[in-house]
Amino acid sequence: MAVLLSFLVSGLGQLYCGRPGRALLLVVVTVLLVPLVYLPTLVDRQAYGHFSWIFLALVALVIMRLYVMVDAWLVARHTGALRLRWYNRWYIYAGIALIGSALGLVTPFHSYSIPSASMAPALLPGDFVLTKPYWSDSRKPLVGDIAIVKHDGTFFVKRIVAVGGDRVQMIGGRLTINGVALPRDMVGNLRFNDVDMTLYRESLPDGRNYRIMELSDHEFLDDTAAFTVPLASYFVLGDNRDNSRDSRVMKEFGYMPAESMVARVLVVWWAKDWGRIGTTPE
């Protein structure tokens, strides 16, 4: 039981064994380690490109979590029969778990594999990404986020392009938000999966920009009806605009309600191209 509790929340197993001081020490160390993974992005969004930093930070977190679990097991062995104290109550543990999720004591990262090319060129098939669940995040999903979404029991990765109240339409391959076509600059051409594609850099109203791929501006989903996003919902697209099933396909996909937004993508932690390991998708 002590090991299981320590797996869920750092230090909780030690508290269960009647070692509150030890539990507090492990909590403090964990709280200090967690920000190491986020620190680069506070200075520079592209700082995750330094693979050594993300690798060392994650290794430190994994080692710390393993140490906490092993320590809980050793403490439980030496403690013997437990004498329940006032804090050995389920509601105390539940409260600590809730606080721990806010502080990052509960494992704050999830990993997903990318199975398709719908988010190319930002994410490629075979990539593994590290994500921050929105339930443990300090902010809501934002326009521009690359997000893991859950639809009909299946996880997808898409980019948020609009939120509740926005009007969205594709006109001649151009993404239009609230009647204004987003600026789009041609970057170059790309041979992708034996198909000639055109790369563009698309800019959001807040200045954030990212690359998208187009086969042409005359494909099936390049001209759509106008969609008004319901409140507490999101409109998501794939960056590979002519090879993505997304919110443009209303009958099969449609708007994403807030409860379908699972996590935002932070970093590529593994890729077939080693040069992309540790990079932050735009």
Automatic annotation (TrEMBL):
<dbReference type="GO" id="GO:0006465">
    <property type="term" value="P:signal peptide processing"/>
</dbReference>
<keyword id="KW-0472">Membrane</keyword>
<dbReference type="InterPro" id="IPR019757">
    <property type="entry name" value="Pept_S26A_signal_pept_1_Lys-AS"/>
</dbReference>
<protein>
    <recommendedName>
        <fullName>Signal peptidase I</fullName>
        <ecNumber>3.4.21.89</ecNumber>
    </recommendedName>
</protein>
<dbReference type="Pfam" id="PF10502">
    <property type="entry name" value="Peptidase_S26"/>
</dbReference>
<feature type="active site">
    <location>
        <position position="118"/>
    </location>
</feature>
<dbReference type="InterPro" id="IPR036286">
    <property type="entry name" value="LexA/Signal_pep-like_sf"/>
</dbReference>
<feature type="transmembrane region" description="Helical">
    <location>
        <begin position="23"/>
        <end position="39"/>
    </location>
</feature>
<dbReference type="InterPro" id="IPR019758">
    <property type="entry name" value="Pept_S26A_signal_pept_1_CS"/>
</dbReference>
<comment type="similarity">
    <text>Belongs to the peptidase S26 family.</text>
</comment>
<feature type="transmembrane region" description="Helical">
    <location>
        <begin position="51"/>
        <end position="70"/>
    </location>
</feature>
<keyword id="KW-0378">Hydrolase</keyword>
<dbReference type="InterPro" id="IPR000223">
    <property type="entry name" value="Pept_S26A_signal_pept_1"/>
</dbReference>
<keyword id="KW-0812">Transmembrane</keyword>
<dbReference type="InterPro" id="IPR019533">
    <property type="entry name" value="Peptidase_S26"/>
</dbReference>
<feature type="domain" description="Peptidase S26">
    <location>
        <begin position="89"/>
        <end position="270"/>
    </location>
</feature>
<dbReference type="GO" id="GO:0016020">
    <property type="term" value="C:membrane"/>
</dbReference>
<feature type="transmembrane region" description="Helical">
    <location>
        <begin position="90"/>
        <end position="109"/>
    </location>
</feature>
<dbReference type="InterPro" id="IPR019756">
    <property type="entry name" value="Pept_S26A_signal_pept_1_Ser-AS"/>
</dbReference>
<keyword id="KW-0645">Protease</keyword>
<dbReference type="GO" id="GO:0009003">
    <property type="term" value="F:signal peptidase activity"/>
</dbReference>
<feature type="active site">
    <location>
        <position position="158"/>
    </location>
</feature>
<keyword id="KW-1133">Transmembrane helix</keyword>
<dbReference type="GO" id="GO:0004252">
    <property type="term" value="F:serine-type endopeptidase activity"/>
</dbReference>
